[in-house]
Prior knowledge:
With 190 residues, this protein is mostly helical. The protein has helices at residues 10-28, 33-53, 60-79, 83-105, 110-115, 123-150, 153-173, 176-181. It contains 8 helices and no strands.
Amino acid sequence: xxxxxxxxxxxxxxxxxxxxxxxxxFYTGGKDLITATAAFMIAVLILTGALLIWRQRPxxxxxxxxxxxxxxxxxxxxxxxxxxxxxxPTIVQGLFAIGLITGLLLKKPLLKSLxxxxxxxxxxxxQILSSRYAVFFIFMAALNEIVWRNVSxxxxxxxxxxxxxxxxxxxxxxxxxxxxxxxxxxxxxx
Length: 190
């Protein structure tokens, strides 16, 4: 019935398609955030189903954000109040910051378990990177609160989709010297 291996598009789709549908539903649905939220939730559920059909273990961040999307999306729809979905990025960023800080306190940087297969760093590099990302996530949570409380829904949505993505990309790009300095297995000539 289904191919033995999952299609290559499934993982990237799980990250980007729901957001694209949310954005498209907002603009094609008369800039209605409630309708966009419903479309977003349906897209997330369909992609979760697809991951389960192909027996793919969803990434941890996908599981966390899916749970929060469904909870805050349901609150948005139930109370017909868009404030709940606007708070979702704050909650997600805050939870990531708490997770990273907890990992640092336990001397087990969580970024290493999440991204260790993609980036090879010494333990000290993981600690520094985790602390920097914790601060970044706290900043982004506060920034989301400032933006959604002070601008129109349309401006907030554009910030959520494009602003957060651009700021995250720029922040990550600024970590390149850290990757170079703490690359695992490299001899240092200090």
